[in-house]
From TrEMBL, chain A:
GO terms for molecular function: calcium ion binding. Residues 120-155, 161-196 form the EF-hand domain. It holds the Pfam family EF-hand_7. This is Calcineurin-like EF-hand protein 2. InterPro entries: Calcineurin_B_homologous, EF-hand-dom_pair, EF_Hand_1_Ca_BS, EF_hand_dom. Keywords: Calcium, Cell membrane, Cytoplasm, Lipoprotein, Membrane, Metal-binding, Myristate, Nucleus, Phosphoprotein, Protein transport, Repeat, Transport. It comes from the Eukaryota. Belongs to the calcineurin regulatory subunit family. CHP subfamily. The keyword Cell membrane applies. It is found in: Cell membrane; Cytoplasm; Nucleus. PROSITE patterns: EF_HAND_1, EF_HAND_2. GO terms for biological process: protein transport.
UniProtKB/TrEMBL annotation, chain B:
Belongs to the monovalent cation:proton antiporter 1 (CPA1) transporter (TC 2.A.36) family. PANTHER family: SODIUM/HYDROGEN EXCHANGER, SODIUM_HYDROGEN EXCHANGER. It is a multi-pass membrane protein. One of its GO terms (biological process) is regulation of intracellular pH. Its main location: membrane. This is Sodium/hydrogen exchanger. InterPro entries: Cation/H_exchanger_CPA1 (IPR018422), Cation/H_exchanger_TM (IPR006153), NaH_exchanger (IPR004709), NHE_CaM-bd (IPR032103). NCBIfam families: b_cpa1 (TIGR00840).
Length: 205, 755
């Protein structure tokens, strides 16, 4: 497709991107779906968000998405795109973060030395973990949990109720009794949940 | 009412005495009876909501029909006839337009257009499938001699079939709300309801016309099909035209805010009438008119007009629908029925059967084209939720008299409606819950699971919004470009690209937002995020709490009731009978707002860190000059003036709080560039500053434990000093916490900005 190729040329390092994220460019023979190039669509979306055409996104661009503003944890989601200290997101990072939400490839051959794919269960959990853990110390403290709860619950819930919910949450998950939830404890507490189903977006397959 | 008829000052002594008390009923009879009917309907509505549990289990249509039945019973025993107001003209010209306008105006446009194909598919093809299927099967039944209905021709069968295939899934929407049905299903049901009204009326007229013909030739049939498309498309184009004209007109109503709602109604009604004149689909016209004009009109008109429009549309629409259901009940008792067991029962059977089949087949065909295919539970909901409603009844009642079996048809329609509304309407909720519950076993979920699951759902919803929905993205993008470049310039009065917060604030009624903020100022500041961080650290060594299982169950219940649902399920279109509920959206926005405020203040210190962190409040665009005390440069409209006066009024109500004129002297943030464009509206500006003021107050309250009555009135200098005192008590936060939400707000003693 002529248009595909010309767009491809504009995206820097596209092969590396494809390999890292696993997003397909064209439909392969062994793929069952016939959806068109995801990377190109994401690129179009990136350009649409980047209204001033700077080639990177800043928080304000994300904020312009109305529906995201209405999301209780919208701020945190946006924050997840920006690594600490950086204020812009280039296309590479954009796609890499979104790649977390691809459904897991069930029939991927397990090569012992290849790095874990971005959309593995563990990485998805890490993404969710970092939404809680804003100070990035590797643990979810009680206050961080309270903040998330406050954001997700309506105003009728009183503080005592919030605090007891938070206490109970920590109690259930906290195995080494340090009153915080580490990543391992987080992962363990969510064993029963089908993370692939919950943290995947079907149209990114 | 005593009426003294005293025409001449000197009454002739020879005449009979003037009556002091007369009754002149015939003069007022018609308006009086109409008023009484509407009042009765309103009482019924009030009555339902007195006992909340009823409305949960029994859909409102059921209740209305029941009341109608009761009233009909009373009238029948008194040998009164029901008022003969339900004529064809009265229905089509007066009662139907409000119902359709109501559906069209409150249709959520974005999901609607994204699912446009599916909606049309189910509405048009589905209704056609149903009508033709039922018609043919009933005709086959007619051939069987035993039922004695051989005189019904094929055309008449088709006519009847088209009447009873008009689905009105109102009750289903309320049920879907409680059970987590995804947004797509919601909008399909909503759109289907809307469009199949249009399709049914078109088919009805078509078949009516055909039924009158003696002989039908193949050519006629094709002509009719062609006419069907002409009618549908014609209606759409017509409606769009009127929508744009309305939007254009509202561009100039800046000085005459009072007549703005009137213009909207007049234009919509005009669209309907003129479409009727040309015999194209008037329902489509009015719906498309409402859809197109809503977007532009809501930006042009004042906040009050916007509220008025919504309220009036809802009011008239629901009155109209209520009346029709009422009549249904009354007519059921009072008319002469023609009963034919075989025909009617088979009609009912086929109606259900063909709908189920139709949904099954149609879903199979369209699923591959959808991003999110419908699963079995969705299909069941769609099929079982096909209740018949007001439109079917009215269409049956207004059948022309030359149809031989008119009474039979009316009876049949009534039976189908009552069956679906009562039996299906009441049982759909438990059935869907059953199907749902079988999937997840709630008792084994821990609190952890619930919270994290909900967080993940919010995350995925957010990321989906971030990616933009892909199915119709291309066309939407094109249209939005066209819209921004051309349409908005023509149709909107002051075309400013608006930031998300400002646009949202305008849509959510500002005045109410103020009140919510007043109430919430105490709550928000009491939120554990920032203030109590300090105390938390002190109480680190708390003993472990023991939780009883009853506690845990309470927590589960608390969570399921209070956690915000995903995306806009709770906004806009949840209940057909009430106005859209914006409270959740407002809460979320207010919270973000205050956290933005906090991060702003926090961001004005800590040297270099501040410079970086202040960019982390995400929804305020660059160049928003928050520290400007000047009113925005564009002219304040007369309409916005009323918002200002509202703001003033509410501030007068709370004298110890700051008057709105006291503009917040926010510290000039070096990181924000002051761009010359005046993006702010007066409303947004005052809103934010008041919001800031409120949160200040709130934090003061929590800090000192009592209302500090020495809050400043009007003077910025006092304000800052007062706050200065309050804030500086907080200890410095020495941790390297970076994120603004975690940061403790400190106050750098700077001179207040004097402009």
């Amino acid at each position: 497709m002529g248009s595909t190729n010309s767009t491809l040329l504009k995206i820097p390092n596209v092969e590396v991107l494809m390999q890292e994220t696993g997003l397909k460019l064209v439909a392969e023979e062994n793929c069952l779906n016939v959806s068109p190039a995801h990377i190109i669509r994401l690129h179009d979306r990136f350009k649409a968000l980047d209204k001033e055409g700077r080639g990177h996104l800043c928080p304000h661009d994300f904020g312009a998405i109305k529906e995201l503003a209405m999301n209780p944890i919208g701020d945190r989601i946006i924050g997840a795109f920006f690594s600490p200290g950086k204020e812009t997101v280039d296309f590479h990072t954009f796609v890499k973060i979104l790649a977390h939400f691809r459904p897991v490839d069930k029939d991927r051959p397990k090569e012992p030395n290849s790095p874990e794919p971005i959309n593995s269960r563990s990485n998805k959990l890490k993404f969710a973990f970092q939404l809680y853990d804003q100070d990035k110390d590797g643990k979810i403290s009680r206050d961080e949990l309270l903040q998330v709860l406050r954001a997700m619950l309506g105003m009728q819930v009183t503080d005592e109720q919030l605090e007891s919910i938070a206490d109970r949450t920590i109690q259930e998950a906290d195995l080494d009794r340090d009153d915080t939830i580490s990543f391992e404890e987080f992962r363990k507490s969510l064993e029963k949940i089908n993370i692939d189903h919950k943290m995947s977006i079907r149209f990114l397959r | 009412m005593p009426q003294v008829e005293d025409t001449d000052p000197d009454p002739d002594p020879g005449e009979t005495t003037q009556a002091v008390f007369t009754l002149n009923y015939p003069r007022i009879q018609i308006p009086f009876e109409i008023t009484l009917w509407v009042l009765l309907a309103s009482f019924a509505k009030i009555g339902f909501h007195v006992y909340h549990k009823i409305t949960v289990w029994v859909p409102e249509s059921c209740l209305l029909i029941s009341i109608g039945l009761i009233v009909g019973g009373i009238m029948h025993s008194l040998h009164e006839k029901p008022p003969a107001v339900l004529t064809s003209n009265a229905f089509f010209l007066y009662m139907l337009p409000p119902i359709v306008l109501d559906s069209g105006y409150f249709m959520p446009t974005r999901p609607f257009f994204e699912n446009f194909g599916t909606v049309l598919w189910f509405a048009v093809v589905g209704t056609l499938w149903n009508s033709i299927g039922i018609g043919i099967s009933l005709f086959a039944i007619c051939q069987i001699e035993v039922f004695g209905v051989q005189d019904i021709t094929l055309q008449e069968n088709f006519l009847f079939a088209s009447i009873i295939s008009a689905v009105e899934p109102v009750a289903v929407l309320t049920v879907f709300e409680d059970i987590s049905v995804h947004e797509q299903l919601y909008i399909v049901v909503f759109g289907e309801c809307l469009f199949n009204d249009a399709v049914t009326v078109v088919l009805y007229n078509l078949f009516n016309h055909v039924a009158a013909l003696e002989v039908v030739e193949a050519g006629d049939v094709f002509l009719d099909i062609g006419r069907f498309f002409v009618v549908g498309l014609g209606g759409t184009i017509f409606g769009a035209l009127f929508g744009f004209v309305t939007a254009f007109t509202t561009r100039f109503t800046g000085k005459v805010r009072e007549i703005e709602p009137l213009i909207i109604f007049l234009y919509s009604y005009l669209a309907y009438l003129i479409a009727e004149l040309f015999a194209i689909s008037s329902i489509m016209a009015i719906v498309i008119c409402a859809l197109t004009m809503k977007y532009y009109v809501e930006e042009n008109v004042s906040q009050r007009s916007c509220t008025t429009i919504r309220h009036v549309i809802k009011m008239v629409g629901s009155v109209s629908e209520t009346l029709i259901f009422f009549f249904l009940g009354v007519v059921t008792i009072t008319t002469e029925h023609e009963w034919n067991w075989g025909y009617i029962l088979f009609a009912l059977l086929f109606a259900l059967l063909w709908r189920g089949l139709g949904i099954l087949v149609l879903t199979q065909i369209i699923n591959p084209f959808r991003t999110i295919p419908f699963n079995f539970k969705d299909q069941f909901g769609l099929a079982y939720g096909g209740l018949r409603g007001a439109v079917s009844f009215a269409l049956a009642f207004t059948l022309p008299d030359n149809i031989g079996r008119k009474d039979l048809f009316i009876t049949g329609t009534i039976v189908v409606i009552i069956f679906t509304v009562f039996i299906q309407g009441i049982t759909i909720r438990p059935l869907l819950k059953l199907m749902n519950v079988r999937k997840t076993n709630r008792n084994q979920e821990t609190i952890n699971d619930e919270i994290h699951k909900r967080l993940m759902e919010h995350t995925v919803a957010g990321i989906e919004d971030l990616c933009g929905q892909w199915s119709h993205y291309y066309w939407k993008d094109k249209f939005m470009k066209f819209n921004n470049r051309i349409l908005r310039k023509i149709l909107i009065r002051d075309n400013h690209p608006e930031s998300s917060i400002v646009a949202l604030y305008k849509k959510l009624e500002l005045q109410n937002a103020m009140e919510v903020l007043d109430q919430m100022s105490g709550d928000i500041s009491a939120a554990p995020s920032l203030i109590s961080l300090h105390e938390e650290r002190k109480n680190a060594s708390k003993s472990r709490k023991k939780f009883l299982s009853s506690d845990v169950t309470n927590m589960h219940e608390l969570l399921s009731k209070n956690m915000y649902k995903i995306r806009h399920r709770t906004v806009s279109y949840t209940n057909k009978h009430t106005l859209p509920d914006d409270i959740t959206a407002r809460e979320i926005l207010m919270r973000r707002h205050t956290s933005l405020r906090r991060s702003l203040r926090a961001g004005s210190f800590h040297g270099t860190n501040a410079a970086k962190m202040s960019q982390k409040y995400f929804s305020l665009p660059m160049g928003r000059s928050l520290n400007s005390r000047f009113p925005p440069r564009r002219l304040v409209h007369a309409g916005d003036g009323d918002i200002e006066s509202e703001i003033n009024y509410s501030s007068i109500r709370h004298p110890q709080r700051v008057s709105s004129k006291a503009v917040m002297p926010l510290r000039p943030l070096n990181t924000l560039k002051e761009v010359a464009s005046s993006v702010n509206t007066v409303d947004g500006q005052n809103e934010e500053q008041r919001g800031c003021r409120r949160s200040h107050l709130g934090s003061n309250v929590s800090r000192s434990g009592h209302l500090t009555s020495h809050l400043p009135h009007g003077s910025s200098r006092n304000c800052s000093d007062g706050d200065h005192d309050a804030w500086v008590e907080e200890p410095q936060n020495n941790s390297d916490v970076q994120h603004p939400l975690m940061r403790r707000p400190h106050w750098l003693p700077q001179k207040p900005h004097d402009k």
